[in-house]
Amino acid sequence: MEEITAQLATATVAARAAVAVGQVPTLSDGDLMSAMSAVEILGRTVDALRVAVAVEVQERSRPTLGSDRLSARQGCRAGIELIARVTQVSEATANRRCRVGAGIRARDTLTGEVLPAAFPKVAEAMDAGELGVDSASAIITALSAVASRAEPEMLAEAEHALVGCALGVEVSSGEPITPFTADQTRIQAIQWQVALDPDGVKVCEEQATLGRGMVKLGTRGGLTRYRLDALPELEGKLERIFASCLSPKTAGRFLTVEDEAEALVGGDTRTPAQQRHDIVAAMLDAAARSGELPTIGGASPTVLISVAAEELEAGTGAGWIDGVQNPVSIDTVKRFICTGGIQKVLFDCNGKIIALSSPDRIFTPQQRRAITVRDGGCVIPGCQIPAGWCEIHHVIEHSRSGPTHTDNGVLLCWFHHHTIDTSGWQVHMVDGVPYIRPPRWIDPDRQWRRASTPHTLTHTRPPRPDRMPSRT
Ligand SMILES: [Zn+2]
Question: Measured in angstroms, how far is the CA atom of residue 462 from the centroid of ligand 1?
Fold first, then answer.
């Protein structure tokens, strides 16, 4: 035993002597690449040994051995705890090593017979230092899940093929291919799962259907956290919508020249996560406006915000959304009023309603349609949000005598409406036509430019040379 420890210690010294961490930044590109491959080969050998010793400890600590189990003799409750204590890795890592190890360790039976490993090809490739623990884990996890329902020969074929892909061999023809990364191996392994257990997809979907849901987890720091467990079809719909509305810069696709120009002009500084939030906000507004949702007390679902008149007047304080614990700022209240209108309710000192105004400042559906035809979508250049999801912004605030008229309303998406007072973008109307001025960091001259023209109008007018790149 002392000899094994001594030899491993020598190997550690040799690895340190080969290249010091401090030396890495000085390597040439070529040397860096070679060093990375060589270190990985060493790492795979070390990982294979880590897995082998971990699963052996776990096996000798199995509960059926009672107080004679290794973990108990070393003062730990279970094998995982013992592994974590000795190696100082997390219990999650210890678990993973044991899971992989269980797939590549020869199995003892109750009769004392020894069976080969459940995944002999994985075992062989790991032992040879060719297969990393990530890829091994992907193969073992995916195939173990269907092992009890799959034909043994097909299972062996799947294992062989997957190990081949990970090592860079097409096993049926023996031809070399580009070795798969662990992520690619995982995707390939999922496809094998379907082939090995075709009924499993249905069973899995049935289970997933029961598990689907959306729950409110709690509120902290002004944000409410939800968890959405979405079925694949909902995921597909969401991904399509997000892909079509994310700004080209953050959508994770290749940019055309037009996209690049739009991304530059739009100057969108939001993260993809923030954009997805804003897209959901716009989608919900559109759904509420569609007139197809169930009504509540005869009215379509409307968000009610209450605010004291004095606080609204003073611009300080807070508004309260019906059914929501967190307050919203007066700026948010004003934006709601801008797009959704206001109804004044006057109370006496006992809280009795003594006067009620009729709701005003809301653009009618006819006005909305007309503005939609004129603006085509959010008027901020580069914004991808379609017209149906936009809010109508009073260019001159109602409180400053701005009328609720098509000549004073423009389409802005949820985000651009939210930030119109702070983002530096400005809108004004000339003869009922919206003009936009970018913030100084986008256009140092801050020129007023006519908002982009939607497709519907370009057929009847020649394009203007000075116009911003079109959104469409
Ligand atoms: Zn917008």
Answer: 25
Q: In this structure, are 161 and 307 located in the same domain?
A: no
Structure tokens at 397: 């605030």
CA distance 318 to 130: 63
Residue 173 is part of which domain span?
A: 23-201
Do 433 and 324 sit in the same domain of this protein? no
For residues 290 and 283, what is the distance between their CA atoms, to the nearest angstrom? 10
CA–centroid distance, residue 308 to ligand 1 (Å): 30
CA of 224 to the centre of ligand 1 (A): 23
CA 401 to ligand 1 center in whole angstroms: 25
CA of 434 to the centre of ligand 1 (A): 14
DSSP-derived 3-state class of residue 114? strand
Question: What is the C-alpha to C-alpha distance for residues 224 and 280, in angstroms, rounded to an integer?
Answer: 14
Rounded to the nearest integer, the mean pLDDT of the chain is 84
Residue 463 pLDDT greater than 50, yes or no: no
Alpha carbon of 315 to ligand 1 centroid (Å)? 25
Q: Report residue 382's pLDDT band, with 50, 70 and 90 as the boundaries.
A: confident
Report the range out of 110-114, 351-355, 404-408 with the highest average pLDDT.
404-408
Looking at residue 110, its amino acid is L
Distance 101 CA to ligand 1 centre (A): 53
Continuous H helices in 327-470: 330-340, 365-375, 414-418, 455-458
Domain match, 55 and 85 both: yes
Q: What's the 337 CA to ligand 1 centre distance in angstroms?
A: 19
Is the pLDDT reported for residue 105 higher than 60?
yes
Residue 261 lies in a domain: no
281 assigned to some structural domain:
no
- Give the residue-averaged pLDDT of 49-53: 96
pLDDT of residue 227 exceeding 60, the answer is yes
Whole-number Å distance, alpha carbon 378 to ligand 1 midpoint, is 5
User: How many angstroms does the Cα of residue 282 sit away from the middle of ligand 1?
Assistant: 10
CA of 419 to the centre of ligand 1 (A): 10
Q: What is the 413 CA–ligand 1 centroid distance (Å)?
A: 4
pLDDT value at 86 more than 90: yes
Q: Residue 77 falls within a domain, yes or no?
A: yes
Give the pLDDT confidence score for residue 75 in this predicted structure. 92
Whether residue 187 sits in one domain with residue 162: yes
Give the distance (Å) from ligand 1 centre to CA of residue 312.
26
Asked if residue 11 is part of any domain, the answer here is no
Least confident of 140-154, 166-180, 268-282: 268-282
Please give the distance, rounded to the nearest whole angstrom, from the Cα atom of residue 414 to the centre of ligand 1: 7
Domain count for the chain: 3
Report whether 94 contacts 113 (CB < 8 A). no
CB 99 within 8 Å of CB 140 = yes
* pTM of the entire predicted model: 0.58
Rounded Cα distance between 42 and 268, Å, is 45
Q: If you measure from the C-alpha of residue 199 to the centroid of ligand 1, how many angstroms do you get, rounded to a whole number?
A: 46
Co-location of 164 and 79 in the same domain? yes
Judged against a pLDDT cut of 60, whether residue 251 lies above it is answered with no
